[in-house]
Design a protein that fits this description.
Helices cover 38% and strands 21% of the residues. The chain is built from seven helices and twelve strands. The protein has helices at residues 16-33, 47-56, 65-88, 120-125, 154-164, 198-206, 214-223; strands spanning 3-8, 36-41, 93-96, 103-105, 114-117, 131-135, 138-141, 146-148, 169-173, 179-180, 192-193, 226-229. Helix 1 packs across helix 3, helix 2 (47-56) packs antiparallel against helix 3 and helix 6 packs antiparallel against helix 7. The two termini are 24 Å apart.
Length: 230
């Protein structure tokens, strides 16, 4: 069974208009490649910030497990919306959350690290569905508490899921067409980079670039997974 992993970040799922746009991309991939698709999604733009604000009105300690429970709802929301739109297009789809897979993490709430992923359920569901929409950024600890991976953690979710499925590539969609020498929305003469090493993108990340979450690059480098930024 050929499987493709695609990740869409917050700006790609900013609103319903953009979600409908990415649903067309997913639809085209399903029809063109005849592959099963695992879509990993972030929360819609601004949603996570709003959830953080709501929590901090009550408590400031972000290592409290309830903080992760609140934040994880953003990805749950966008995953369900995207899956619903795909089903309206007659593309057999369902959403799935980190704890359902499960994506097992340590107990370091608000910046948990993935320990292992059981891919058995994903593979089983892909026999019934053309697309699985996974809520990124989240997992579950061995004491059965929801955890989150830190801001930008959906990139890490996507790479880790690709590895667990035995796939050596992962597509990450952003609001710009790939990786540039500078932010093309700010620097007009920024040029697109055709390819870049893991070490180079990690250096960019250390300088403040938000193209890829550093932990996702470290994971890809460790296991030899090629990341395509679309």
């Amino acid at each position: 069974m050929a499987i493709q992993v695609m990740k869409f970040g917050g700006t790609s799922v900013a609103n319903l208009s953009r979600i409908r746009n990415i649903s067309k991309i997913i639809e085209n991939e399903v029809k063109k490649q005849k592959k099963k698709i695992v879509v990993v999604v972030s929360a819609m733009s601004g949603v996570t910030n709003k959830l953080v604000q709501d929590y901090k009105k009550v408590r400031k300690n972000i290592t409290d497990p309830e903080y992760d429970v609140i934040l994880s709802t953003g990805e749950q929301h966008s995953a369900a919306i995207i899956s619903t739109i795909l089903n309206e297009k007659k593309i057999n789809s369902r959403s799935i959350l980190g704890w359902q897979i499960p994506i097992i993490t340590d107990k370091n709430h608000s910046k948990a690290r993935i320990l292992k992923i059981n891919s058995k359920l994903i593979k089983s569901l892909l026999k019934r569905y053309k697309v699985l929409v996974v809520a990124g950024f989240q997992g579950v600890s061995d004491d059965n508490r929801i955890t989150t991976l830190g801001r930008g953690g959906s990139d890490t979710s996507a790479v880790a899921i690709a590895y667990s499925l035995g796939i050596r590539s992962c597509e990450i969609y952003t609001d710009v067409e790939g990786i540039f020498t500078s932010d093309p929305r700010v620097v007009k003469n920024a040029t697109k980079v055709d390819s870049i090493t893991y070490e180079e993108i990690l250096e960019l990340a250390s300088l403040g670039s938000k193209v890829l979450h550093p932990r996702s690059v470290e994971l890809a480098m460790k296991y030899g997974i090629r990341i395509h930024v679309r």
